[in-house]
Each structure stands twice: as C-alpha cells, then as structure tokens.
Amino acid sequence: MDAVDHISFESTDTAGKSITCKAAVARGPGQPLVIEDVQVAPPQKMEVRLKILFTSICHTDLSAWKGENEAQRAYPRILGHEAAGIVESVGEGVEDIKKGDRVIPIFHGECGNCTCCRSRKTNLCQKFGVNPLKSVMVNDGKTRFSTKDGSPIFHFLNTSTFSEYTVVDSACVVKIDPEAPLEKMSLLSCGVSTGVGAAWNVANVQPGSSVAIFGLGAVGLAVAEGARVRGASKIIGVDINPTKFAKGKVVGITEFINPEELEVPVHEKIGAITEGGVDYSFECAGNLEVLREAFLSTHMGWGLTVLLGIHPSPMLLPLHPMELFDGRQIVGSIFGGFRGKTQLPDLAEQCMCGTLNLDEFITHQLPFDKINEALQLLVDGKSLRCLLHF
Fold first, then answer.
1. Which of the listed CATH numbers 3.40.710.10, 3.90.180.10, 2.40.128.110, 3.40.50.300 matches domain 3-189+358-389?
2. pLDDT by residue (tens digit) across 50-97?
3. Does the reported pTM lie above 0.85?
4. In this structure, which CATH number among 3.40.50.720, 3.40.50.1110, 3.90.45.10, 2.40.37.10 belongs to the domain 192-335?
5. Which residues contact 277 (CB under 8 A, 6 or more apart)?
C-alpha cells in the first residue's frame, strides 16, 4: 500500500473549482524556492489537474533555477518535471484519462494527431514537444497558477510539478498500471526514460557491444542500466567525480575513467582499451569539450555518439565536417526516443517485473518543504534523485 491508497476525491468534490495548495515558487534566478499558497484553476478543454504525490529535481530544473538559459527566465514560475500522482479532475474532451487514475506527467507530450506523431520515424510532437519558451497553457495562452491576489504564476516544461496540484495538457499525462509504485514511477518522467531510451531506442545497443558514457548523473547511469540490459560487454563510465563510480558498478559499468587522472585525452585512452574505440558513446554532461571527446572515442567506420546533455551555450558543434567522413555519426536524443503516452506504460511494466532496477537512482528522500535542501544536494553532486513527498 502506498500513499495513493489513502487519497480519495469522493468526499470533497473539487472538480470545477479552484484549489488552494502549497507550491515551491521560483521568484528569481538562484533565489531559494519559496513555499507558498497558490491557486490552481480547474482544467480547461483537453487538460488534466493532478494531485502530485512524489516529485524530484533534475539538472534541467537546476539550470532553469539558476537562469542559465534566457528562454527559462519567466518569473514567478513553478519548476519541476519529474513526478507521479493521481488525477483529481479532467477537462472537456479528455477521454483516455479519468479521475482517480495513477499517472506520471511528461515534459515531452504526444498529441497523436500532428505530422510527427503520425510518423513512425520520430517521437517528436509539434504541439506538445519540449519547449523552454512555453510558460502558459496551449488552450488559451493563460496560466492555471496564481497568487492569492490573482497575479499569474508561470508554467514550466508542460508540467510544473513543484506543486501539490498542477494542471497539464492531456497529451502530457501517462496512465500507468494501478499497482505500480508511484514513488519509483516518478523517475520515468524524465531521467530514467531519457537514459534507458537513448540506449534502447536511439542507439539500439547490441549484445556484446562496447559503450562509453560521459557524465554519470542520473541520465548517464540510466544509459548504463539500459546498455547492461541490452547485453553490452564493456560499459565505460567517464566522470571527474569519483563518488559516482561505486553507484556505476551497480548498474553495470565495467570500467571507469577520471579525465583528471589521465595524461592523454580521454578518447585516446578509450581507443587504447577498446581496439580503436567504442561502438556507442553517450554525452550526458552538456559540455562541448566533452562532446568532442565522446565523438572521437567511437570507432571509425561505425561509431555512434548520442547527444543527451543540455547545452545552453551559443557555441556550435566542435566538429569539422570532414571528420564525418571517417564513418562516425552523431545524433541527438529527446526523451530517449520514447513516445510518452503509447510507450511509457510498457516501460513501467518492465520496471515492475524487474527488467530495470530503479532503486539505485533514488539516493535521498525528503518532505516537500525541504525542497531547497534537495536542490543543494544536487548542486553539490551528492544526490542522483532526491524524492520529495507531500
């Protein structure tokens, strides 16, 4: 039995009414998040209002909180995009989700109707794809959050999960098995899906292959978990934080490289221990110099580099066009190539049956009002995911 078993909306019908609840509001870049009462309006057409039970902090939240990207500087704002909860009410036209369903919100939606959603070649969605510029709802260009005096509070990445209640487009809500443990399922909103999917869907890692992962945060370790499940024989983890290595061994990393301990470039070291380079490399650090090392660490002729890190810098790719004639390839990955609404329920099932181990990714747990402590744990590199519960 988890927290959801104690939640019922039957006795207090809040459908169609505004709800007052606690939220962590970002008032400015780098400022401590403020726990305050906010008003959450009812869902409009094709929207869903969720009661968030668990949420965690991702590096994308951290970057937005710092104000590292101009596109992410709408304030006041409710951040957060990794979470799990239960449906409180639905708006007009929502048919696939109902009150009481267990769900996870996703920042990268799937409308099912646009040109991209109708194509089997991509997981992009033209209407509800990730967009850091977006700070209001698609339906009417307004927010569903406000202060006590009615001033708007802006949305973030289609989700805004640092709030006890949130309103999201139905395209960004995934219904999962009612028996699924929601505290673990929250990880599928971003980090684990992004990493595992990069290994499975984007790179299509093959049994017996070699892999190098640059950056061993939650996403990088999820790549390792995905590569392990796929049967990769050599999984090399690259990070300057040696504390990440112990956790890496648990998820399948076989060798570790700390660039600060080398006298040669990382790609030369990897080339020496893999007979010319790995089959697949994954850049999870959001650093252009690291991206170049990841690219050069793959084997000429067939090496594939998957770009996962967020790069706020205006600098362009550190590659010369002629280097692509060596047969190496580079590709970006959004949400691990997963189509959220149609494919995440199956991923959740695989987690429930033990194919993937989610326990290793939750390193800390705190009550929601300790969110600034959780933020600092991530800043200090001491946590992968700190699970916050209401």
1. 3.90.180.10
2. 999 999 999 899 988 988 765 556 899 999 999 999 999 999 999 999
3. yes
4. 3.40.50.720
5. 267, 270, 271, 296, 297, 298, 299, 300, 303
